[in-house]
């Protein structure tokens, strides 16, 4: 199986007002990110607005990403649903399209018990032959994964990674201590990547890497080389991007940043709204500071 390490930007989903994908724009973004040194691409993460897209749009985003990657880096496609059957169908379809891995996200309307949450992720992993990254984000998800559930899921041969966006770095260390090598940890934008690498993380999957790919890759390489003083100096500067990301709407912030860098990615999918002029100026200021 493919090993996932390093920087995996959560891609935006650039769509027209009528819903059509701006495939050319997404392809150029993917190509430039790969040239900047990123280690993989993740379509349909939180920044990819998966919750606002239809099935055909999601499939188009995944296909455009796979075609743009052209085997140069792995593509880990986001799968999300309130229904286990639908999530399984997405995962199977994305593997057939050529995805190298699945990012499994649980959407929930009614609260779920641990056994139900566990069965959702197991069903996805049972249905595919590629690595699965489980994603937990208690800030947005109605049903979170407990440490006990995570530990049991780590025993599945295809559930090999977790991306945790809890903002609780101690929880990450608990996962590492509990699961060992059976479950590798990716940081989210809610965590300090250098700190996660220090305690044993293998990289980060996050939207901010879309607008600061070279700096993100440089930070990863410094951490990997254990050049911690240099890494923390760069990390302090880059944290301004994470702060902006936390302050504004996720997709709106990254789409505004990409627009400022010359990518016509368009506005977030309604009912989300684009950043105001003042908010956009704040993102522009952050980009100028980290350049």
TrEMBL record:
Family in the record: Belongs to the DapA family.
GO molecular function, one term: 4-hydroxy-tetrahydrodipicolinate synthase activity
Entry annotation: catalytic residues: 135, 163
PANTHER family: DIHYDRODIPICOLINATE SYNTHASE
UniProt protein name: Dihydrodipicolinate synthase family protein
UniProt-listed CDD domains: DHDPS-like (cd00408)
Pfam families: DHDPS (PF00701)
SMART domains: DHDPS
